[in-house]
Predict the 3D structure of the following.
Amino acid sequence: MNIKKDILWRVYLVYIVICLGGFLILFKAFSIRYFETLEDGRSWVEYDREVRKTKQEREIEPMRGNIYAADGNVLATSYPVYEIRFDPMAAKDDTFDYYIDTLAYTLSKYFKKRSKAQEKQRLLNAKVEGNRYLLINRRVTYPQLKAVKQFPLFKKGTFAGGIIVIQKNKRIKPFNRLAHRTIGYVRQGVAVGLEGYYDSLLSGVPGRRWEQKVAGGKWIPINDENIVDPVPGSDLYTTLDTYIQDIADNALAKTMMKHKADHGSVIVMEVATGEVKALANLAKTENGDYFESYNFAIGEGTEPGSTMKLMSTLALLEDGFMDLHDSIDVGNGSAVFYDKVLRDSDKKSRGKLSMRDAFAKSSNVYFAKALDSAFRQRPHEYIKYLRQAGLHNRTGVDIKGEPLPFIKDPSYTDHKDKKAWTGITLPWMSIGYELKISPIQMLNLYNAIANGGKLMRPYLVSKIVQEGNTITEFEPRVLSEHICSKKVQEKLEDLLILPIENEKGTARNIKNNHFKIAGKTSTCKIAKRGSYSKVYQASFAGYFPADDPIYSCIVVVNRPTASGYYGGIVAAPVFKEIAEKVYARKILAEHHIGNLVKADHFPYVKSGKKEDVESLCDAYGLDHQIFTNKDWVKPFSENGLLKVDDRSVINTLVPNVRGLALKDAMYLLENQGLKVKITGKQVGKVRQQSISPGVKARNGLVIELVVS
């Protein structure tokens, strides 16, 4: 028992001693920090505050991710630009004196800005004046930086040699103004376009390092090591097609200049998926040029005008109130609703018109009378059809700035408010007034009709890639399986051909003999200060080819002031140019390959890697058989079937590369240790090789390839 007490007493004693020791350490630290002073009289607290002002852990800007088009072209990229500074106080005096002559000579010879004597004098002056941030060169490339880092004294690094490297990432758009506003930018707190919408992914994660503040308020790294390395931003792969984008941009620019319009936009979308293939916006600048200053296609809600007649027709047909051949008497082309007169722009429309004729001619009176008769007592039913078609909501396109559509509520009847539902709201809404919809929202309606009634979410980014690995892939998203019945959708398809194919159609000028276009024109007066003046918005929305829709497109041109203002004259020709060029370049090319296959005439397929040949066959639906497990194969056609046989490659022997694409040939030969010399073109197929296949391959042996 006494032993136990003795042990406990010892433990308690040790515990008390440790606690007292800890207390003394804390007390000493506290007294040093707050009561003891340095030789110059400053307290440690004051010293710490001053150190924090001159030495801090600061951020390193990461490399921003790239933005790519669907065809692989780079739409936006960052590249590093380096600023070189020099701290003459970093090196010891004897080291500085030893290297100053050779450093001055090297700087003079490399940058060719000053003589050796001038460079030496600058370095000496910086040393005497204590300038720790002497500018050597404001802008050097990475290869130049590597060379500069090997200069005398500089090769000792930041801490011992005084070289200061400041990386600045410069953002460029290789295609200049092409899709400028869609790609967007982030600067000074303003974030627009894809750059703005995906900023958090593109911007990456900043690194951190210790830096010291020097004269002039500049911060320089204390050493060459980072506390945390920056993580580069993710890359975006968009749905944009640079070929279609270029066509859309040029076609819009031509009509803007011809008609001296204020601003305009074009969207081209893939019908089946909702992928946006082109998005062009142009606005007149102060000097009369045109530039992408705002994304009107996404962000501008306007009264759409007669393109809205598609929606009105959908409601009339779906409700069962009218059918395609039902007629209405439009009189002399005008009608009175309460105290307002509504007129047809086509003064030739008289008497009875069927729905087909009214749609082809774009009769305002017909659709205003039809909707007023059908829905005057039940306007909520009409709004229900708009909601079914998705016109009550944003499309959800992945870019900032899309407004909520403005559609009046029949329940709101406070006539003191401009938002109120009145007796003329329904007839005016039937022809695209008293509501506001953006071009992307209107196009989505037309795209749904082209897509068998299926409403898609438009989107601009197909995948996000981080350091070569796909982290997110975006698939087409269906917003509604059916915006109307199949029967009504087919009737609308039939109607949408009429403005182009009918001899009195408002867009008959864009008819062509190669394929059919479906769509609707609009010539809409623009409201200014509550009244409508002779200022117009011309537009055309539709899709092509009408028989088997692949692309939908909308063209909107605001305030044309020369050479006409009608939608058929101003906007429809833009649509036609886009449709014809895209059809010729993309659709016909794929159709041609398909016809070759159907005719049992196979396109020539080069020898190459088995996986590449299989991918090509799958992509174009080529019937094929594989007769080998080898990586390298030789395709040939036989009896309407593409057969793929072994193309043997044996290690240590020179392979047969005739018929291979140059890149595949080089891969095989260099893997055998051979050095390749190319004669002829730098891309194409290998026609001849200077060393016969089967010869023993020796490391460093030179083989010449003839490429055509």
Remarks:
- Residues 80 and 169 are 4 Å apart (CA to CA).
